[in-house]
Design goal:
The structure holds two protein chains of two kinds.
Chain A lengths: L4 H14 L5 E3 L7 H4 L10 E3 L4 H13 L5 E4 L5 H4 L1 H14 L6 E6 L14 H4 L4 E4 L4 H13 L3 E7 L19 E6 L2 H14 L4 E6 L1 E3 L5 H9 L4 E8 L3 H13 L3 E6 L17 H12 L2
Parallel strand pairs in A: 1-2, 1-3, 3-4, 4-6, 5-6, 7-8, 7-10, 10-11
Antiparallel strand pairs in A: 5-9
Helix pairs in contact in A: 1-7, 3-5, 8-11
Chain B lengths: L2 H25 L15 H13 L5 E3 L5 H6 L4 H9 L32 H12 L3 E6 L6 H12 L4 E7 L2 E2 L2 E2 H4 L4 H7 L3 E6 L2 H5 L10 E6 L19 H9 L1 H22 L3
Helix pairs in contact in B: 1-2, 1-10, 1-11, 4-11, 5-6
Classes of the chains: A alpha/beta, B alpha/beta.
Bound molecules: thiamine diphosphate (TPP) and magnesium ion.
Chain lengths: ~300, ~280
């Protein structure tokens, strides 16, 4: 049976520790669950380091570790904790190479999750890192993507923010773009929304629309195939960019870039501009396939 | 006169004469970036550098804060490269990107500061945890109040790191005195975190008493000192403030006055040659 994202991450981390490439830092790592089963059962003696609950200092400690020629992996169990965890990653680790020619390559595993967890720390917050120089951001949702970005990180000297999502941990399939022929509308998807656009495309095509799909792995530097720009340019209605973060961040910014290159309208969908509540009725979830279909139809019929 | 006193004096006098040149270059608008003069406080790094490098023969990792010229010079940083750095000339020790506050030097294992006060503490702790090598972290009395500084001290103690925390306590956060900001002391905090913690002044004899503990276990020294000049830039808040260097120079006597003139001439020339390039 093919490996899932969960097994892939666990395998990569185990070999990272066994080969002594660097330590793994985080809070409550060795507790029940091992961060959604993505960590091997290893302890401080093996390089699995329990940080204290001092969230801001934790990011600094990991940064310091990266200065000593190791490649630390920093596990952030909910992406919203980044408000406390990221200050020294973005202000120090990300700047060190440019300022002093001193690489500080931290691999941040920011884990997204939402649905019934209330207003605290859910969803993805990769936009927090996006505006700062010196950070690379990707959102791997498949086993192959994860392996690829890990290997690339090991070859480079950069800070990586890896925007994970628990909803992808069971996934063992790879995604394919559909960027051939003439399309009415293109769906460009980031993070967990990639699973939903596949479903939305099917429903819309059953209704006779021609829908393109472009999966985004690399958020910063933003990378999509050149055909994607061509397809959007020649499409009837442009594209919708979908994300698991608030739209006033990465989505609107990238949409603007694509718009400048294609001269087409690039719409955005992400979290609504409100705080998530604990119960279903008041939650704030990323766009699901039904919402995508509804919004797409509105655009297509305009 | 004790030979050690004289050796420490020489280091401190290098720092002072360097800072006077920086002061003048700022006044004359030759330096146009923000500078943080360490004049008045140089006996702390000079004494520590002497004890650690000359006596213990240890080359520690050094994590400074923004007021770091004297740390760099005392621990053997190349002075010419610092002159160039401050003047924005090619060959500056931090590629002219660091300026006064963010000096970085691989040669002396001094790790640049990002200008956010106190970040050097968690970063220094993380570095020491990974390298397990002797590490010295400097902070101001105000930076010590940062939440992430306090929590990092706790972690360093828990992990029993070979780390020395030095609080350069000039009693000021820009111009706000310590008593307005807090009713507690850093050495007490250190002790409550179960590490050695002491409050002393910048008398080299007092600092030397603690050498035996350096890098054997985590320790914090809160060292009282005086900043002679403005927080940033070239000016004086209080001309009557106690000046450790002058005090030691008088105590040591004639030999130190003569040595100071030699050091002054050499450092003035170093600056002069670079200023001519502007
Ligand atoms: C995180 C952060 N907050 C505020 C400042 C602004 N600031 C710069 S220096 C300073 C005072 C520093 O005092 P101290 O740590 O005692 O060092 P000193 O200047 O006395 O050497 C302040 C508040 C800063 N640089 N970084
Ligand atoms: Mg101070």
């Amino acid at each position: 049976m093919a490996k899932t994202v969960r097994e892939t991450i666990k395998y990569l981390i185990k070999s990272h520790l066994l080969k002594k490439k660097g330590k793994v830092f985080g809070q409550c790592l060795t507790a029940v669950g091992w961060v959604g089963g993505t960590l091997p059962e290893m302890y401080e003696k093996d390089g699995m380091i329990e940080l204290s609950m001092a969230d801001v200092a934790g990011g600094g400690i990991v940064t310091g570790s990266a200065l000593m020629n190791e490649r630390p992996i920093y596990v952030i169990r909910y992406q919203g904790f980044n408000w406390y965890n990221c200050p020294m990653i973005v202000n120090y680790a990300a700047k060190s190479k440019e300022l002093w020619n001193k690489p500080c390559p931290v691999f941040v595993r920011g884990i997204g999750m939402e649905g019934g967890i209330g207003p605290v720390a859910g969803s993805s917050h990769h936009s927090l890192y996006f505006r700062m120089p010196g950070v690379k951001i990707c959102a791997p949702m498949t086993p192959k993507e994860y392996t690829k970005i890990y290997k690339q990180y090991m070859k480079e000297k950069e800070v990586y923010y890896v925007s994970e999502h628990r909803g992808s941990f069971n996934n063992s399939k790879e995604f394919k773009n559909d960027l051939k022929g003439k399309k009415d509308l293109v769906l460009i998807a980031i993070s967990i929304t990639r699973f939903e656009v596949e479903k939305a495309k099917k429903i819309l095509e059953d209704k006779g629309y021609k829908i393109g799909i472009c999966h985004v792995l690399w958020i910063k530097p933003f990378k999509i195939p050149s055909e994607a720009y061509e397809i959007i340019k020649s499409s009837k209605k442009g594209a919708i960019l979908l994300d698991d973060d608030y739209v006033d961040g990465i989505s609107n910014s990238i949409a603007n870039k694509i718009n400048l290159k294609t001269n087409k309208s690039i719409y955005t969908m992400g979290l609504k501009d409100k705080t998530a509540g604990a119960h279903k009725k008041v939650d704030n979830l990323p766009p699901n396939y039904k919402e995508i279909v509804k919004f797409a139809k509105k655009i297509l019929n305009e | 006169m004790n030979k050690i006193d004289f050796e420490i004096f020489k280091l401190a006098a290098e720092c002072r004469n360097f800072e006077i040149n920086v002061f003048n270059a700022v006044k004359n608008k030759k330096i146009t970036i923000p500078v943080y003069l360490s004049a008045g406080q140089e006996y702390i790094p000079a004494t520590l550098a002497y004890l650690i490098k000359k006596e213990l023969k240890i080359n520690p990792y050094i994590f400074p804060q923004h007021r770091c010229h004297s740390i760099y010079i005392s621990f053997g940083g190349n002075k010419l490269k610092l002159v160039k750095e401050l003047l924005g000339l090619k060959g500056g020790c931090s590629y002219t990107k660091g300026g006064s506050a963010s000096i970085h030097s691989e040669e002396i294992k001094m790790i640049g500061h990002d200008g956010h006060m106190g970040t050097q503490v968690p970063i220094g702790v993380g570095s020491c945890f990974t390298s397990k090598k002797p590490t010295i972290v400097f902070m101001g009395d105000a930076a010590a109040e940062e939440d992430y500084v306090l929590s990092s001290l706790g972690w360093a103690s828990t992990k029993k790191l070979p780390i020395l925390f030095i609080v350069e306590d000039n009693n000021l956060s820009i111009l706000t005195e310590k008593k307005i900001r807090r009713n507690w002391n850093m050495h007490d905090v250190a002790k409550s975190f179960k590490m050695k913690g002491y409050e002393i002044n910048d008398n080299p004899k007092e600092i030397s008493k603690f050498k035996k503990y350096f890098f054997k276990e985590p320790m914090l020294l809160n060292i009282k000192t005086n900043r002679l000049f403005w927080h940033s830039g070239a000016g004086q808040d209080n001309p009557d403030i106690f000046d450790r260097l002058n005090f030691e120079m008088k105590r040591i006597g004639n030999k130190s006055f003569k040595e100071n003139i030699l050091i002054k001439n050499y450092i003035d020339k170093l600056w002069q040659r670079q200023l001519e390039k502007l």
